[in-house]
Specification:
The protein is mainly β and 883 residues long. Among the domains are: 114 residues, Sandwich (Immunoglobulin-like), CATH 2.60.40; 398 residues, no CATH class. The chain has 2 helices and 68 strands.
């Protein structure tokens, strides 16, 4: 495929002085040395950070970054402890603050005891093109470097030869081209690394050599040597007969008898090219053509991205000289009979897939257009209601005695035995979350809801509005996606549960299947293949989702682990997934794009074909997807789809015709802003809007001294949010809007409509403590539970904490138990205006339990040098609306 060339020749220069000094002793090998680098920037380009790496001689690569953002900062670094030796390599890269200019360079150096070696590193910098666009499929290229030039002798008489020799290296082993030139005289083979120069006239001349690994298009390394030709006692020749066979006499010098030396030596319509007369065509090499063109069959043609499918990367095809994804279909004609193309996937040609396919006043239900009624099935109605004659009505057992079975009567919309009661005991029913009261005078029972938060289901659930709700995170079937991290990472699952269980983790696209065993009170760790990480954008990845199936209920936590870029998330079981989501993420920047990901869930065991149509309205432009314009993708079971944006996808609306798993975050986010180092991967699995809450109780992160960043997002217009804490505030939000605040201390956050609250750890440079960014959801206080089993990563994070929100009465009574021991009351601080207190409790590496008589909140997180993770410990089912 023809290579694309920049349309600007602007090059900026960085000059780096490297000092490699050995230690002062007499040994000649294996001694440690040091490396000192200083950079002097030229031009008006702003560079805030320069990355460097030293490698060679089998040492573990040493790398780092030079922060040059502050006024007065010097781009310099000194590294001690490099063993003495040769053939070390330092590479340096940088990107301008506006992202428009990128730079790179390298140099080899040696380290010797008591010897200082000076090395120059030139960082070649190029600005981004300001016209059009280009799709790049290739690799980084290190230019060939001229390392040796020998010219001898530097003076000789006319007619005599001077030996020319040059040597060059290329790190990637690319072919190196040589080109010799002289201001006068004759060069025997201008393209050979070793050749000869013949003096023709007396005087001072110059010989120049250039080397390149890209046909002298961009990468050129050169050197020029001055030589002197003096007159001899007698001319070398006067006639051709005076010369050897194959030579002729020109200007009293014997030179090879070539076809031509200049164009004038050739016939009309020909030119002289490397001493041979060739037709005078439009071009012979790309350099003969203008910008944006290449030479093909001696004609200059546009530099197209591709001509045939083979010019494109795997998974792409060539259409209209552009490489595009090799999709299943683009138009209906690409599909089989009875199918149509929807979202580049062939699906059955049904009446409709989404509501927009139907006429006004109708919606799409089971692939058919039906009247847009309030409901068709019970799931269309709010919690506590059922669908009757297309209307949502309270889910009551009876209205009249006639609605009950024989021998029963209707009391408070419940069917009870038609017998008079004599005590409250006669009124006990099967609902743990109601209490029966007997009216002895009438003999009738009355059933009332118990207090919200009362324990039910053997301690696994809590009563809310007369219903028992269990831990939202407990389930038997999970479908998750690992979003892209900064680089390829270690992917791990943490599995735990209240009962012993067995199960299987599978990834269809990788042919991966691994069984597991869960022991109560412990966390089972299971490693996944690195290729389970989804790195593409706006591409359906068939079978790329991770599925976890268990015999008994368990919780699942995902850890995306990369040195200096880690985060964790709590997985939601399939049974609580929804069809309407808002994305919580972080804005794209210099280190990573904003990300959202979705995965389709099988409709039944063994299902591989049921399509799920997902409609995404991105809050920011994402590649070819404009902001605010809905688009659809169609997923088969366990297909995954990721969308990346340089903007901020927070607030994006994701709707689907079937329940799906949804994730949000950023590949490597700088928080709270681009100027604060350093970046870290952030991610959470996002709950559907149907289980958002209206009250959040926050706890500051341990060790942080300058507050944490919070984002509060609304799903409905006119949502009023009240912050109660050190800095009270009333905020008005519309659908998809979010408020970002840096909060110091604990807060109570309430809202008039459901909200989603995310807590972010700021970068290390925010307050200079050991930490880095992570993302953690804050569930509603109405979704607290009383029993948690949780764990830290097994290694890599020496500082781990549990943030706890518990009733002050439980704290005072010593009944908040961490691993069976009371959490000291002195660890807690009362949260003003609430019956709760908060604590930041250090925890050891491994598995833990947290138990209290009443519901409490738990948030788990940890730190390492320039790294961190965090996730919510759990929350109950149902919505988190205040009673």
């Amino acid at each position: 495929m023809p290579a694309s060339r920049p349309n600007s020749s602007l090059v900026l220069l960085f000059v780096a002085l490297l000092v490699a000094a050995g230690c002062a002793n007499d040994s000649t090998t294996g001694e440690p040395g040091s490396l000192n680098v200083n950079l002097e920037l030229r031009g008006d380009i702003t560079i805030n950070q320069v990355a460097w790496e030293v490698r060679g001689n089998g040492i573990t690569p040493i790398s780092g970054a030079i922060n040059t953002s502050a006024i007065g900062s010097t781009p310099s670094v000194e590294v001690f402890g490099i063993p003495s030796g040769s053939n070390y390599l330092i590479t340096m890269t940088a990107t301008s603050l506006d992202g428009a200019t990128s730079c790179e360079g390298w140099a080899e150096f040696d380290v010797s005891p008591q010897v200082t070696t000076n090395v120059m590193v030139m960082l070649n910098c190029k600005p981004a093109q300001n016209l059009g666009g280009v799709r790049v499929n290739g690799k980084f290229n290190f230019c060939a470097d001229l390392v040796r030039v020998v010219v001898a002798p530097l003076q000789t008489s006319v007619g005599n030869d001077i030996a020319l020799s040059a040597g060059a290296v290329d790190l990637e082993g690319d072919e190196i081209l040589y080109r010799w030139e002289a201001t006068d005289g004759f060069i025997d083979d201008p393209t050979a690394p070793e050749t000869t120069y013949t003096c023709r006239t007396a005087g001072s001349h110059a010989v120049r050599v250039e080397v390149s690994d890209d046909s002298f298009d961009y990468c050129i390394s050169d050197w020029t040597v001055a030589i002197t030709c003096v007159s001899g006692d007698a001319p070398e020749c006067e006639l051709d007969a005076d010369c050897d066979a194959g030579e002729v006499c020109e200007q009293n010098v014997c030179v090879p008898d070539v076809e031509c030396n200049v164009d004038a030596d050739c016939d009309a319509g020909e030119i002289c090219l490397v001493n041979v007369c060739v037709p005078d065509v439009e071009c012979n090499v790309d350099q003969d053509c203008g910008a944006g063109e290449v030479c093909f069959q001696n004609e200059c043609i546009p530099d197209l991205e591709c001509s045939v499918d083979g010019d494109c990367a795997p998974g792409e095809v060539c259409e209209g000289n552009v490489c595009i994804p090799d999709l299943e279909c683009r138009v209906d004609a690409d599909c089989a009979t009875g199918e149509i193309c929807v979202g580049n996937v062939c699906v059955p040609d049904v009446e409709c897939n989404i509501d927009q396919d139907c006429p006004a006043g109708e919606i799409c239900f089971a692939n058919e257009c039906v009247p847009d009624l309030e409901c068709n099935i019970d799931q269309d109605c709010p919690l506590g209601e059922v669908c009757v004659a297309n209307d949502c009505v309270p889910n009551i057992e009876c209205n009249l005695d006639a609605d009950c079975d024989a021998g029963e009567v209707c009391v408070d919309n419940l069917c009870v035995l038609d017998v008079g009661c004599s005590s409250d005991q006669d009124c006990v029913d099967a609902n743990e979350c109601t209490v029966g009261t007997c009216n002895v005078g009438t003999g009738l029972c009355t059933n009332s809801d118990v207090q919200d938060g009362t324990v039910c289901d053997d301690g696994n659930g809590l009563c809310a509005v007369g219903e028992c709700r269990t831990n939202e995170l407990l389930g038997t079937d999970f479908v998750i996606v690992f979003e892209a991290n900064y680089l390829a990472s270690q992917l791990t699952l943490g599995l735990s549960g209240p009962q012993a269980s067995t199960g299987v983790v599978s990834i269809p696209a990788l042919g991966f299947s691994q069984s597991f065993v869960v022991t109560p009170g412990e966390v089972t760790t299971l490693a996944l293949p690195p290729l389970a990480e989804v790195t593409s954008s706006d591409v359906v990845e068939p079978g790329a989702a991770v599925r976890v199936v268990s015999e008994e209920q368990i919780t699942v936590y995902g850890l995306n682990r990369l040195l200096l870029s880690t985060d964790a998330f709590a997985a939601l079981p399939v049974e609580v997934l929804g069809q309407r989501h808002r994305i919580a993420a972080w804005s794209g920047g210099i280190n990573g794009p904003s990300q959202l990901a979705v995965a389709a869930v099988p409709a039944f065991e063994g299902d591989t074909t049921t399509p799920t149509t997902v409609t995404i309205t991105p809050a920011a432009a994402a590649g070819a997807r404009p902001a605010g314009i809905p688009f659809t993708v169609v997923l088969r079971p366990l297909d995954a789809y990721q969308l990346q944006s340089e903007g901020d996808l927070t607030g994006s609306l994701v709707e689907s015709d079937r329940p799906i798993s949804v994730f949000g975050g950023n590949r490597c986010a700088n928080i709270p802003d681009q100027e604060t180092g350093f970046c870290d991967h952030v991610v959470e699995q996002l709950p559907p809007v149907s289980i958002w809450g209206t009250e959040a109780l926050t706890v500051p992160l341990a060790t942080r001294t300058s507050g944490d960043t919070f984002r509060i997002m609304a799903d409905q217009n006119g949502t009023q949010v009240q912050l109660e804490g050190a800095t009270p505030e009333l905020i008005n939000l519309n659908a998809g809007d979010f408020a970002e605040r840096n909060l110091t201390g604990s807060y109570r956050i309430t809202a008039s409509s459901p909200i989603l609250v995310s807590q972010f750890s700021n970068g290390t440079q925010w307050d200079g403590v050991t930490s880095d960014p992570f993302m953690m959801l804050i569930p509603s206080a109405a979704q607290f539970i009383r029993t948690y089993t949780f764990a830290t990563p097994g290694s890599g994070f020496p500082e781990n904490y549990a943030n706890i929100v518990a009733l002050t009465s439980d704290v005072a009574s010593g009944t908040v138990l961490l691993d069976g021991a009371p959490v000291p009351a002195g660890s807690f601080t009362a949260l003003a205006g609430t019956p709760y207190s908060t604590a930041q409790v250090p925890i050891s590496i491994g598995s833990h339990t947290l138990i209290a008589p009443n519901p409490l909140g738990l948030y788990v997180y940890g730190y390492a040098a320039f790294d961190s993770y965090g996730y919510p410990g759990g929350f109950s089912t149902g919505n988190g609306l205040l009673p």
